[in-house]
Amino acid sequence: MDWSVWGPPLVVLGLAAVGGGAFAITGTRRWAHDPIRADLQARHEVVMTRLRDLDADRDKIDDHDYHHTRRDLIQEAADILRQLDEGPNETAGAEQAATPAPKASRGAGWYLAGLVVFFTVAGLVLQNALAPRTDGSMTGNAQSGSSADPIGEAQAALEANPEDLEALNTLTKWALYTQDLDQAMQLMDRSRAIDENDPGVIVHLAALRALIGRHDESLVTLATQEDALPAEVGIWRGIIAMQQGDDATAATELRAAVMASSDPLDREFAAFLLSDLMRATQASATTEGEGDPSAAVMTTTVSSASAVEPGGVLYVYVRASPVPAGPPMLAKRIETWELPLEVSLSNADLLPFAGGVFPSPAYVQAKIARSGDPRQPMDGDMKSVVIGPIEDFSAPVELVLE
């Protein structure tokens, strides 16, 4: 652990925990005998324990079950904290009612303590989900194999000029994406001191509101910046929709964010969220009212310039973006193949989050995964270049493996 990086946030978090605990103890001492409050506190501890256990057993749990269980537990924890923040039981005895603690202090204590616990657990869960992955997933790491390192560049720029607003916004955005909220708030304070009306600063404040459940306020603020930062706005609208259980709207917003983004951080994070949503959803990939969903929409011809050894699984991907990373809209898996091979692609082949709509323009790529799993690269894997944008699907698309 690099203490020069993590030391200050951990100190801040520790002080917040101590202060929040002191506020909570002070604010709740009067109601220690309230059975309803005691029950809520016990339930909250149980939910926090279940969240920690769920994170510890991440590798043993099916993706779909893990993400839905996590979402339900976080929502339950938030509901309990809101009930605790409402104050003492109105039916408590006359002695309690006659000498209530200041409402603002009580609410602030519970709110601060609740935020410390909630964001600590949520940060650990999301940082685990953003661990380094292979073949089309979020790196979760600024020092990836790519030659471009926007986080490193922003850090260097900020060291050279502590008032570089663009660098501050980049680092704030990444802190929000990775749920490092202490760091995000520190960076945001510096940004606001420079220009509180900057679009990036406004969007990041809206993002913080979204993360603590103030969805309506966040959406109103985001709407004012959709022309300035369409990709970031789309990502946070998608996150809000996911928090509200509206997966269809979330998928629409995140797909648009991938296509609108010129920033690799936005594009990669939007693609990661789409992938996460794809694994969690159980929606059907059929198109209503548009005839037979298995009818071919696009035809591809897969070939190779040289001899190809048999073995492995052939995949044909269709994406809405030229970047060959993140979740494809369509992934056709062919276990038995011989080149050259003609492959028909239809709406029935679309993945669940695509909503039954074939992307246009489309970007197509073929790949042979010798292990059978494209996330586990092996010697002998082959892939074609990405072909696109394609808007006219009448002619076959030629994909040459290299």
Concise structural overview:
By secondary structure, the chain is an alpha+beta fold.
Structure notes:
The protein has 402 residues and is α+β, with helices and mostly antiparallel strands. It folds into 3 domains: 3-129, no CATH class; 150-280, Serine Threonine Protein Phosphatase 5, Tetratricopeptide repeat (Alpha Horseshoe), CATH 1.25.40.10; 296-401. Helices cover 52% and strands 11% of the residues. It is built from 13 helices and 8 strands. Strands 2, 3, 5, 6 and 7 form a 5-stranded antiparallel beta sheet that branches. Helix 9 (199-211) runs parallel beside helix 11 (230-243), helix 10 (215-223) runs antiparallel to helix 11 (230-243) and helix 11 (230-243) runs parallel beside helix 13 (264-280). It is globular and about 70 Å long. The chain starts with a helix and ends with a strand. Residues 1-6, 23-33, 89-106, 125-147 and 282-290 have low confidence and may be disordered.
Number of helices: 13
H and E order: HHHHHHHHHHHHHEEEEEEEE
| Rg, alpha carbons | 25 Å
State the end-to-end CA separation: 41 Å
**Assigned CATH superfamily of the largest domain:** Tetratricopeptide repeat domain
CATH class category name of the largest domain: Mainly Alpha
- How many structural units, i.e. domains? 3
Instruction: Sum up the overall morphology in one term.
Output: globular
Low-pLDDT windows of residues: 1-6, 23-33, 89-106, 125-147, 282-290
Based on helices, strands and strand pairing, what is the structural class? alpha+beta
